Amino acid sequence: MISEPELEGGAPFETAEVLTEERAPRPPRPRRGRMPWLWALGGAAIASAVWGAGLYAFAGRQPEGVDLRGYTSVEDLCARAELKSLEAVLGDRSGSGAGPYLDEPTLSESSCSVNFGKGEREQDVQITYTLHKQIDPGPEFAARAKQVDLIEPVGGVGEQAFFSGSEDGGTLRVLDGQAVLEFSLYRTYIENEKGQTVERGAPDLSGLDVPLTQDALALLAALRK
After folding, report:
1. Strand 160-166 and strand 152-153: pairing?
2. In whole angstroms, what is the distance from residue 219 CA to residue 76 CA?
3. For the chain, how are helix, strand and coil distributed in percent, rounded to 5?
4. Looking at the predicted structure, is the pLDDT value of residue 91 above 80?
5. How many CB atoms lie within 10 A of CB 74?
6. Considering only CA atoms, which of 75, 92, 70 is closest in space to residue 83?
7. Which end of the chain is more exposed for a tag (fewer CB within 10 A), N or C?
8. CA-closest candidate to residue 160, choices 131, 129, 137, 193
């Protein structure tokens, strides 16, 4: 007969222990880092935003202006051009008219036509004033003058000046800093009652460079006021 708590002739049977303690918590898993492509995407987005902000700031900036030496844009060029020396040669000033006017951030230009004398002795001078607000016209000034046969240098007016003329008139172009002045005056012709072309009775224009230079000096000073 089997007796409790052991079997006859056998080893004692040990009872299992009852677990009364709580299980120890598992160690926390290491946090997985962000995916590399997320970091790359975030970095690219930040770099793009910074670059875009810099580009926007640069685009919004105005380029630094050059030294205009007091020259300004002038719409009514005829009012500034007194032309006293030409008046002494050609006769009283009899009229004037303004040409197209341009005023942009990089360039301004105005022109004027002034008449002298009356009747058959009437002659007119064309004046153009160009102010380069950003680009220096100096390096190419002589080349552009040569292009239109202005090859005679003139001293004493502006930084550079060139003239071309004959007994029928001439053209003077002057550079002073960012300003360029051009005077052009040539003998004009009319038709008589028979339809024939005849020259007007203007005075000899072979020495035109002298009064043109004097009036250019006066006009440059007036344009700096």
Report:
1. antiparallel
2. 13
3. 30, 25, 45
4. yes
5. 22
6. 92
7. N
8. 137
Task: Give one DSSP letter per residue of 53-115, joined into a string.
Answer: HHHHHHHHSPPPPP--TT----S-HHHH---HHHHHHH-SEEEEEE---EE-SSEEEEEEEEE
Token pair 């058959």 is found at 120
The class (CATH top level) of 77-223 is alpha beta
Q: Report the distance separating Cα 221 and Cα 225, nearest Å.
A: 7
For 1-16, how does the pLDDT look when each residue is reduced to its tens digit (9 = 90+)? 444 444 444 444 444 4
**111 vs 88, 89, 97, CA distance in Å?**
22, 22, 9
Q: Is residue 142 within 8 Å of residue 152, measured between CB atoms?
A: no
Copy the structure tokens of residue 125. 């001078």
